[in-house]
Write a structure and sequence with these properties.
Blueprint: H1 4-54, H2 61-80, H3 86-94, E1 98-101, E2 107-114, E3 117-124, H4 126-151, H5 156-176, E4 181-189, E5 193-202, E6 205-214, H6 218-221, H7 225-233, H8 245-257, H9 262-292
Antiparallel strand pairs: 1-2, 2-3, 3-4, 4-5, 5-6
Protein name: Mitochondrial glycoprotein
Pfam families: MAM33
Region (Disordered): 147-175
Length: 293
C-alpha cells in the first residue's frame, strides 16, 4: 500500500492530470486546426492574387495609349520630313565650342577655352514654355480687348472685317517674331574669379543685359543654395545699358572675341527648338510605355 506521504505527493499530480490532458487536447486541436487555417490562407492569397492579375485595366488606359501612339506617329512623321537647320550644322562643324546635351535635361552647355580662360555658355528649353505661356496670355488679353471694342460699338460687318484683318496681321507677325533666348555666359580665369554675363539671343543678335564679377568662380554657375545666396548678396554692378557707350561696345567686342557671335545667336534658338522636339518625343514614349505596362 502506498504511504500517506506518497499519496500526498501523488495526489496533486493525479488531480492535475485532467487539466493537463485538457491543455494537451487543446494543443492538439490547435495543431490539428492550424494546417487547415494555413491552407485557407494560401487559397485565399492565391485567389486574391490571381484575381488582381486578371483585373482589367482602367477604362481610359486603352484609349489613352492609342492617342499617345497617334501623337507619336504624327510627331515622328513631321521629324522625318525635317532637315538639320544650316545654323546648327555650321555652328557645330565650324564653331570652337564643345556641346553638352544630356537627354532628359532642360539645360544645354557650350564650353571652350580661350587662352587661360574657360568659357561656358548655357541656355534652357524651359524658356520655350515661358515664351509660349506669355504669348497665350497676350493673345487672351488682345481677344478680350477686341470683344470690348465690339461691345462698345465696333459691331457689324465693318467691325468683323477689321478684326479679321488684325488676326491676319497677328499671324504674319508670329512668323517673323523670333523667340528671345536667355544666355548665361561665364568667363573664368584660374584664381581670378569669373565674369558672369546675362544676355539675350534674338534675331541673330546678342544683347547684353548685365555683367557681374565674382571673386569665387563657383558663384557664377553653382546651383548650391549657399552659392546662390552668396551670389545674390554680391554687388551686381550697374545696368549694362547705363554704362558709357564706348565701354558697352568694348565689352561686346570682348565677348565676340570669345565666340559670343551672331552665329551663336542663330544657333541657340534653332537648337532649342530641335531639342524640345526630341524631348517631347521621348516624353510621349515614356508615358505610353508606362500606361501600357
Amino acid at each position: 500500500m502506498m504511504s500517506l506521504r506518497a499519496i500526498a505527493r501523488s495526489a496533486p499530480r493525479v488531480l492535475a492530470r485532467p487539466s493537463t490532458l485538457r491543455a494537451a487536447s487543446a494543443a492538439v486541436l490547435r495543431t490539428a486546426a492550424r494546417p487547415s487555417f494555413v491552407a485557407t490562407q494560401k487559397v485565399s492569397a492565391a485567389f486574391s492574387t490571381s484575381a488582381f492579375r486578371r483585373a482589367p485595366a482602367g477604362e481610359v488606359d486603352e484609349e489613352l495609349a492609342s492617342k499617345l501612339t497617334s501623337e507619336l506617329e504624327f510627331e515622328t512623321s513631321v521629324k522625318e520630313g525635317e532637315t538639320l537647320p544650316a545654323s546648327i550644322k555650321d555652328f557645330l562643324e565650324n564653331g570652337q565650342f564643345e556641346l553638352t546635351d544630356v537627354p532628359g535635361q532642360q539645360d544645354v552647355f557650350l564650353t571652350r577655352t580661350f587662352g587661360n580662360e574657360k568659357i561656358t555658355v548655357s541656355f534652357s528649353i524651359a524658356d520655350l514654355s515661358s515664351f509660349q505661356e506669355q504669348n497665350f496670355e497676350d493673345d487672351a488679353l488682345a481677344d478680350e480687348q477686341d470683344f470690348e471694342d465690339i461691345s462698345s460699338g465696333r459691331d457689324g460687318k465693318s467691325g468683323a472685317n477689321d478684326l479679321a484683318e488684325e488676326a491676319d496681321e497677328d499671324l504674319e507677325g508670329q512668323d517673323t517674331d523670333a523667340m528671345p533666348c536667355r544666355l548665361n555666359i561665364v568667363v573664368e580665369k584660374p584664381n581670378k574669379g569669373a565674369l558672369n554675363v546675362e544676355a539675350i539671343a534674338q534675331d541673330g543678335t546678342i544683347v547684353v543685359e548685365n555683367v557681374y564679377y565674382y571673386k569665387d568662380a563657383k558663384l557664377a554657375h553653382s546651383a548650391n543654395p549657399d552659392a546662390v545666396h552668396a551670389a545674390q548678396d554680391a554687388y551686381p554692378g550697374p545696368a549694362f545699358g547705363s554704362l558709357d557707350e564706348d565701354l558697352q561696345i568694348l565689352l561686346e567686342r570682348y565677348l565676340e572675341e570669345r565666340g559670343i557671335t551672331p552665329a551663336l545667336a542663330l544657333f541657340v534658338p534653332d537648337y532649342m527648338d530641335m531639342k524640345e522636339q526630341k524631348e517631347y518625343l521621348a516624353w510621349l514614349e515614356n508615358v505610353k510605355g508606362f500606361v501600357e505596362a
